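Q&A log
Question type: sequence-to-structure
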Amino acid sequence: MTLDIPERVVYSAYDEADDETINEAVVEIVLSYLMCIDEDGEPKNVSVRRGENQNFKVEMELRYCGLGS
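Response status: OK
Response body:
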C-alpha cells in the first residue's frame, strides 16, 4: 500500500528540529499524520498534539490532517 503524504506534513518537521534530529522529527510528524486518516486515506475528525516528550521539540496540532491551517 502506498500513501501520498502531503509535503506540508513533512516540511512542518523542519520548524522545530535541528540537523541531528530531523529524521526523528519527520518520522514523528508523518506518524501523527497517519494517525489522523482512516484506512481509506480519508481525514478523521481528530486533533493530535505533540510536545517535548522526545529528544527533539515538535509541537503541532493536526486538524482534519491540515496541520491546523
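Response note: Confidence is low (pLDDT under 50) at residues 50-69.
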